[in-house]
Amino acid sequence: MKNHFRPCLTLLVVLIWHCSCKQIIPNKEGPLDVAKMIYAHQPSPDIHQYLAGDFATTDTLVPGAKDFPGASFKWRLLDELHDSLALVNMTVMEPNGKATDYYLTMRKDKVWKLTAINSLAMTGMLQAELEELEQMPQGYLDTLIDAAQRDKAGNALKMLTSMDDYHFLLGNIKLILQPDDSIVQHFLDNKAAFNQLKDSALAELQRKSTNDKTESQLVKKMEPVYKKLLIESIATDTEDHGKNIDFIIGGIIDNWVGFLYVKDKKDLPDLYNGNLIMLRDMGDGWYLYKTT
Fold first, then answer.
1. Which of 66, 88, 121, 123 could make an SS bond with 35 (beta carbons 3.0 to 4.6 A apart)?
2. CA dist., res. 165 & res. 133, Å (int)
3. pTM above 0.70, yes or no
4. Whether 107 and 161 share a structural domain
Protein backbone atom coordinates (compact mmCIF):
# COMPACT_ATOMS: atom_id res chain seq x y z
CA MET A 1 0.00 0.00 0.00
CA LYS A 2 2.78 2.43 0.92
CA ASN A 3 4.58 1.76 -2.36
CA HIS A 4 1.50 2.79 -4.36
CA PHE A 5 0.57 5.77 -2.15
CA ARG A 6 3.81 7.72 -2.55
CA PRO A 7 3.75 8.16 -6.37
CA CYS A 8 0.04 9.06 -6.20
CA LEU A 9 0.80 11.66 -3.55
CA THR A 10 3.65 13.03 -5.67
CA LEU A 11 1.33 13.26 -8.68
CA LEU A 12 -1.30 15.06 -6.61
CA VAL A 13 1.27 17.63 -5.42
CA VAL A 14 2.42 18.23 -9.02
CA LEU A 15 -1.17 18.76 -10.18
CA ILE A 16 -1.91 21.22 -7.36
CA TRP A 17 1.29 23.14 -8.14
CA HIS A 18 0.47 23.21 -11.84
CA CYS A 19 -3.04 24.59 -11.24
CA SER A 20 -1.79 27.23 -8.83
CA CYS A 21 0.90 28.29 -11.31
CA LYS A 22 -1.71 28.73 -14.02
CA GLN A 23 -3.40 31.30 -11.82
CA ILE A 24 -0.27 33.41 -11.29
CA ILE A 25 1.20 33.23 -14.81
CA PRO A 26 0.85 36.71 -16.40
CA ASN A 27 -1.60 37.13 -19.24
CA LYS A 28 0.23 36.15 -22.42
CA GLU A 29 -2.22 37.69 -24.90
CA GLY A 30 -0.46 40.48 -26.80
CA PRO A 31 -2.15 43.54 -28.32
CA LEU A 32 -2.35 41.85 -31.72
CA ASP A 33 -3.99 38.76 -30.20
CA VAL A 34 -6.60 40.88 -28.42
CA ALA A 35 -7.37 42.92 -31.53
CA LYS A 36 -7.91 39.75 -33.55
CA MET A 37 -10.14 38.34 -30.81
CA ILE A 38 -12.32 41.47 -30.73
CA TYR A 39 -12.88 41.27 -34.49
CA ALA A 40 -13.32 37.49 -34.61
CA HIS A 41 -16.46 36.39 -36.45
CA GLN A 42 -17.48 34.65 -33.22
CA PRO A 43 -16.31 37.11 -30.53
CA SER A 44 -15.53 36.01 -27.01
CA PRO A 45 -18.47 36.25 -24.54
CA ASP A 46 -16.19 38.15 -22.13
CA ILE A 47 -15.20 40.69 -24.78
CA HIS A 48 -15.99 43.63 -22.45
CA GLN A 49 -12.91 42.93 -20.35
CA TYR A 50 -10.82 43.79 -23.44
CA LEU A 51 -12.53 47.15 -24.08
CA ALA A 52 -11.97 50.53 -22.44
CA GLY A 53 -13.69 53.91 -22.42
CA ASP A 54 -16.97 54.21 -24.33
CA PHE A 55 -16.43 50.80 -25.89
CA ALA A 56 -16.73 49.20 -22.45
CA THR A 57 -19.75 51.17 -21.23
CA THR A 58 -22.05 51.27 -24.27
CA ASP A 59 -23.16 48.01 -25.87
CA THR A 60 -24.09 49.79 -29.12
CA LEU A 61 -20.44 50.84 -29.56
CA VAL A 62 -18.89 47.42 -29.07
CA PRO A 63 -16.76 46.90 -32.19
CA GLY A 64 -16.46 43.63 -34.07
CA ALA A 65 -16.64 41.80 -37.39
CA LYS A 66 -20.37 42.61 -37.46
CA ASP A 67 -19.37 46.13 -38.50
CA PHE A 68 -17.91 44.77 -41.75
CA PRO A 69 -20.26 42.08 -43.12
CA GLY A 70 -18.50 39.57 -45.36
CA ALA A 71 -15.10 41.23 -44.93
CA SER A 72 -11.76 39.60 -44.23
CA PHE A 73 -8.96 41.14 -42.15
CA LYS A 74 -5.20 41.61 -42.34
CA TRP A 75 -3.22 42.54 -39.24
CA ARG A 76 0.06 44.28 -38.43
CA LEU A 77 1.54 45.40 -35.10
CA LEU A 78 2.87 48.90 -35.81
CA ASP A 79 4.22 49.77 -32.38
CA GLU A 80 4.40 48.55 -28.79
CA LEU A 81 5.65 51.01 -26.17
CA HIS A 82 6.97 49.81 -22.78
CA ASP A 83 4.41 46.98 -22.68
CA SER A 84 1.77 49.61 -21.89
CA LEU A 85 0.70 51.16 -25.22
CA ALA A 86 0.43 49.64 -28.67
CA LEU A 87 -0.88 50.44 -32.13
CA VAL A 88 -2.37 47.76 -34.37
CA ASN A 89 -3.13 48.16 -38.08
CA MET A 90 -6.30 46.38 -39.20
CA THR A 91 -6.86 46.27 -42.96
CA VAL A 92 -10.49 45.50 -43.80
CA MET A 93 -10.95 43.85 -47.19
CA GLU A 94 -14.55 44.03 -48.34
CA PRO A 95 -16.15 41.55 -50.77
CA ASN A 96 -16.14 44.23 -53.52
CA GLY A 97 -12.33 44.41 -53.35
CA LYS A 98 -12.10 47.71 -51.46
CA ALA A 99 -9.48 47.78 -48.69
CA THR A 100 -9.53 50.27 -45.80
CA ASP A 101 -6.96 50.66 -43.04
CA TYR A 102 -7.91 51.24 -39.41
CA TYR A 103 -5.58 51.92 -36.50
CA LEU A 104 -6.40 50.44 -33.10
CA THR A 105 -4.84 52.02 -30.02
CA MET A 106 -4.39 49.44 -27.27
CA ARG A 107 -3.57 50.08 -23.60
CA LYS A 108 -2.34 47.52 -21.05
CA ASP A 109 -4.36 47.30 -17.82
CA LYS A 110 -3.77 43.76 -16.53
CA VAL A 111 -4.86 42.74 -20.02
CA TRP A 112 -4.58 44.63 -23.30
CA LYS A 113 -7.67 46.75 -24.02
CA LEU A 114 -8.91 48.60 -27.09
CA THR A 115 -9.15 52.34 -26.34
CA ALA A 116 -9.52 54.03 -29.73
CA ILE A 117 -10.03 53.34 -33.44
CA ASN A 118 -8.84 55.81 -36.11
CA SER A 119 -8.68 55.96 -39.87
CA LEU A 120 -7.86 58.64 -42.44
CA ALA A 121 -10.78 61.09 -42.40
CA MET A 122 -12.53 62.98 -45.22
CA THR A 123 -11.65 60.39 -47.88
CA GLY A 124 -15.15 60.79 -49.30
CA MET A 125 -14.30 64.32 -50.42
CA LEU A 126 -11.12 63.09 -52.07
CA GLN A 127 -13.02 60.31 -53.83
CA ALA A 128 -15.56 62.84 -55.14
CA GLU A 129 -12.75 65.09 -56.39
CA LEU A 130 -11.09 62.14 -58.12
CA GLU A 131 -14.32 61.17 -59.88
CA GLU A 132 -14.89 64.77 -60.98
CA LEU A 133 -11.39 64.99 -62.44
CA GLU A 134 -11.74 61.65 -64.23
CA GLN A 135 -15.03 62.72 -65.83
CA MET A 136 -13.82 66.12 -67.11
CA PRO A 137 -14.08 66.35 -70.92
CA GLN A 138 -10.84 67.29 -72.66
CA GLY A 139 -12.39 70.50 -73.97
CA TYR A 140 -13.30 71.63 -70.46
CA LEU A 141 -9.81 70.74 -69.24
CA ASP A 142 -8.26 72.81 -72.03
CA THR A 143 -10.43 75.78 -70.96
CA LEU A 144 -9.34 75.45 -67.32
CA ILE A 145 -5.68 75.17 -68.27
CA ASP A 146 -5.87 78.18 -70.56
CA ALA A 147 -7.58 80.25 -67.85
CA ALA A 148 -4.94 79.22 -65.30
CA GLN A 149 -2.12 80.17 -67.62
CA ARG A 150 -3.67 83.59 -68.21
CA ASP A 151 -4.46 84.21 -64.54
CA LYS A 152 -2.12 86.66 -62.81
CA ALA A 153 -3.88 86.72 -59.41
CA GLY A 154 -2.74 83.25 -58.31
CA ASN A 155 -6.19 81.79 -57.62
CA ALA A 156 -7.08 78.10 -57.18
CA LEU A 157 -6.97 77.44 -60.91
CA LYS A 158 -3.19 77.58 -60.68
CA MET A 159 -3.24 73.89 -59.73
CA LEU A 160 -4.17 73.11 -63.34
CA THR A 161 -1.72 75.02 -65.52
CA SER A 162 -0.94 72.02 -67.74
CA MET A 163 -1.94 68.45 -68.48
CA ASP A 164 1.04 67.42 -66.33
CA ASP A 165 -0.71 69.10 -63.38
CA TYR A 166 -3.88 67.21 -64.21
CA HIS A 167 -2.14 63.84 -64.31
CA PHE A 168 -0.29 64.65 -61.07
CA LEU A 169 -3.59 65.43 -59.32
CA LEU A 170 -5.11 62.17 -60.52
CA GLY A 171 -2.15 60.07 -59.42
CA ASN A 172 -1.71 61.94 -56.16
CA ILE A 173 -5.31 61.49 -55.01
CA LYS A 174 -5.31 57.84 -56.05
CA LEU A 175 -2.17 57.26 -53.97
CA ILE A 176 -3.69 58.94 -50.89
CA LEU A 177 -6.72 56.65 -51.16
CA GLN A 178 -4.67 53.46 -51.58
CA PRO A 179 -4.35 50.96 -48.69
CA ASP A 180 -1.13 51.21 -46.70
CA ASP A 181 0.51 48.19 -48.33
CA SER A 182 0.14 49.81 -51.76
CA ILE A 183 1.52 53.16 -50.56
CA VAL A 184 4.51 51.37 -49.04
CA GLN A 185 5.03 49.47 -52.30
CA HIS A 186 5.01 52.79 -54.22
CA PHE A 187 7.87 53.92 -51.97
CA LEU A 188 9.82 50.67 -52.33
CA ASP A 189 9.44 50.73 -56.12
CA ASN A 190 10.98 54.22 -56.17
CA LYS A 191 13.30 54.00 -53.16
CA ALA A 192 16.44 55.04 -55.04
CA ALA A 193 14.77 58.25 -56.24
CA PHE A 194 13.42 58.96 -52.74
CA ASN A 195 16.90 58.51 -51.27
CA GLN A 196 18.37 60.97 -53.77
CA LEU A 197 15.76 63.55 -52.82
CA LYS A 198 16.38 62.86 -49.12
CA ASP A 199 20.12 63.42 -49.53
CA SER A 200 19.50 66.72 -51.33
CA ALA A 201 17.02 67.80 -48.65
CA LEU A 202 19.44 66.95 -45.83
CA ALA A 203 22.23 68.87 -47.56
CA GLU A 204 19.96 71.90 -47.95
CA LEU A 205 18.84 71.61 -44.35
CA GLN A 206 22.48 71.55 -43.25
CA ARG A 207 22.99 74.91 -44.94
CA LYS A 208 19.97 76.47 -43.22
CA SER A 209 20.01 78.10 -39.78
CA THR A 210 19.90 75.47 -37.04
CA ASN A 211 17.90 77.95 -34.91
CA ASP A 212 14.98 77.93 -37.33
CA LYS A 213 12.36 75.58 -35.79
CA THR A 214 9.49 76.47 -38.13
CA GLU A 215 8.45 74.33 -41.08
CA SER A 216 10.67 74.99 -44.06
CA GLN A 217 10.03 73.83 -47.59
CA LEU A 218 13.03 72.05 -49.12
CA VAL A 219 14.45 71.28 -52.58
CA LYS A 220 11.81 73.41 -54.30
CA LYS A 221 13.97 73.45 -57.44
CA MET A 222 13.53 69.65 -57.62
CA GLU A 223 9.73 69.88 -57.75
CA PRO A 224 9.49 68.22 -61.20
CA VAL A 225 11.39 65.22 -59.77
CA TYR A 226 9.29 64.70 -56.65
CA LYS A 227 6.02 65.39 -58.46
CA LYS A 228 6.82 62.42 -60.68
CA LEU A 229 6.82 60.43 -57.44
CA LEU A 230 3.37 61.92 -56.60
CA ILE A 231 4.81 63.98 -53.73
CA GLU A 232 3.13 67.34 -53.18
CA SER A 233 6.02 68.95 -51.28
CA ILE A 234 9.09 68.22 -49.15
CA ALA A 235 9.60 70.08 -45.88
CA THR A 236 11.04 69.86 -42.40
CA ASP A 237 8.75 68.30 -39.81
CA THR A 238 7.67 70.73 -37.08
CA GLU A 239 6.84 67.89 -34.66
CA ASP A 240 10.55 67.31 -34.02
CA HIS A 241 11.99 70.84 -34.24
CA GLY A 242 12.81 70.45 -37.92
CA LYS A 243 15.14 67.45 -37.66
CA ASN A 244 13.16 65.04 -39.87
CA ILE A 245 12.25 65.32 -43.54
CA ASP A 246 8.55 65.20 -44.43
CA PHE A 247 7.65 63.96 -47.92
CA ILE A 248 4.03 65.11 -48.04
CA ILE A 249 1.74 63.18 -50.37
CA GLY A 250 -1.38 65.15 -49.43
CA GLY A 251 -4.82 65.14 -47.87
CA ILE A 252 -7.54 67.51 -46.66
CA ILE A 253 -7.25 70.01 -43.78
CA ASP A 254 -5.22 68.15 -41.13
CA ASN A 255 -5.79 64.63 -42.49
CA TRP A 256 -2.48 63.98 -44.20
CA VAL A 257 -0.53 61.08 -45.69
CA GLY A 258 3.19 61.11 -46.35
CA PHE A 259 6.61 59.58 -45.91
CA LEU A 260 8.91 60.65 -43.09
CA TYR A 261 12.67 60.28 -43.06
CA VAL A 262 14.09 60.10 -39.52
CA LYS A 263 17.88 60.19 -39.29
CA ASP A 264 17.95 59.39 -35.56
CA LYS A 265 15.24 57.29 -33.90
CA LYS A 266 15.33 59.48 -30.81
CA ASP A 267 13.70 62.15 -33.01
CA LEU A 268 10.68 60.00 -33.87
CA PRO A 269 7.45 61.97 -33.32
CA ASP A 270 5.16 60.95 -30.43
CA LEU A 271 2.72 58.39 -31.79
CA TYR A 272 0.31 58.57 -28.85
CA ASN A 273 0.12 62.23 -27.81
CA GLY A 274 0.13 64.16 -31.07
CA ASN A 275 -1.83 64.31 -34.31
CA LEU A 276 -0.41 61.06 -35.72
CA ILE A 277 -2.80 58.14 -36.13
CA MET A 278 -0.19 55.75 -37.52
CA LEU A 279 3.53 55.38 -38.18
CA ARG A 280 4.84 52.37 -40.11
CA ASP A 281 8.53 51.53 -40.28
CA MET A 282 9.62 50.91 -43.89
CA GLY A 283 13.30 50.44 -43.04
CA ASP A 284 16.48 52.55 -43.27
CA GLY A 285 14.95 55.49 -41.41
CA TRP A 286 11.85 55.76 -43.61
CA TYR A 287 8.27 55.72 -42.28
CA LEU A 288 4.77 55.95 -43.68
CA TYR A 289 2.60 58.26 -41.58
CA LYS A 290 -0.97 59.52 -41.39
CA THR A 291 -2.45 62.32 -39.30
CA THR A 292 -5.90 63.44 -38.27
1. 88
2. 11
3. yes
4. no
